[in-house]
Amino acid sequence: MSHEGLTQKRCDRKWVSFVSPTPAEAEYLGRNHPFVQALARYLFEAALVGHDPRPARRTGAVATRSVNEETTLYLLRLRYLLTLPGRQPLLLEEVRMAGVRSGAPPLLPHDECLALLGQAKPDANIELAEKKSLVQEAIRCWPWGGQAPSRELRLGLEEAFLERAVALEESHKNIRRSLRLRVRELSLDPQTPPDLLGVLVLLPVP
After folding, report:
1. What is the Cα–Cα distance from 46 to 79, expressed in whole angstroms?
2. Domain boundaries, the chain
3. SS3 label, residue 14
4. Are 121 and 64 spatial neighbours (Cβ–Cβ below 8 Å)?
């Protein structure tokens, strides 16, 4: 339902809006709203638990005009051990993406993967059996735990992971330098292997 050009939905007899400015009688549901946070947490946890039926899944395959060759996107959770001068080490986490075209390195960088994820739209249908086959092959090649682990993919991911750790370490050092704090004992060490959270295979449309 529309009100002055703003998309709204009615929920429990109360008007809500996902865009701002919001009409006086509606409540704005931005990304920091408790409802949005709770919904995102539920969708994420339901996908990780793996019970059916699931509102969101961790794997998929899409036929799209956004790619010219088969492209696999991996959603990863990376962990680092940050050691600061005079303090106990801290365990840090972040979620990053990596991609590979036609099943072989070089890897697609994080930003390019995000762009593909936002651009790729289903432009053709894929039979369920083919979807399963595409996803299964991508998982088989996963270097840590796959049935046919790809050594090239592992080397590419480890190199990208290390480069990311070096960049983050330098960022921490720059902040401490600006505050005139010690940096000599600071180190940030990647903890391998990364956790595989999701797989999306993009198939070019003929």
Report:
1. 22
2. 1-56, 58-204
3. strand
4. yes
DSSP 107: E
Reduced to 3 states (helix: H, G, I; strand: E, B; else coil), residue 51 is coil
Whole-angstrom distance, CA of residue 181 vs CA of residue 57: 45
Closest CA to 160 of 100, 83, 89, 84: 100
The tokens describing 87, both together, are 């303090």
What are the beta bridge partners of residue 124?
63
Encode the chain (206 residues) as per-residue pLDDT tens digits. Answer: 444 444 444 445 678 888 888 888 888 988 889 988 888 888 777 777 766 666 666 899 999 999 999 999 999 999 999 998 888 899 999 999 999 998 677 899 999 999 999 999 999 999 999 999 999 999 999 999 999 999 999 999 999 999 999 999 999 999 999 999 888 889 999 999 999 999 999 999 98
- Report CA 37 to chain centroid distance, whole Å: 17
Contact 107, 69 (CB under 8 A): no
**pTM for the whole structure:** 0.76
Q: What are the CA-CA distances from residue 151 to residues 119, 121, 145 (Å)?
A: 30, 31, 12
φ/ψ (deg, to 5) at 100: -145, 140
Written as one letter, the residue type at 140 is: R
Burial of residue 106, with CB atoms counted within 10 A of its CB: 0-12 exposed, 13-18 middle, 19 or more buried = exposed
CB atoms under 10 Å from CB of 57, counted, come to 14
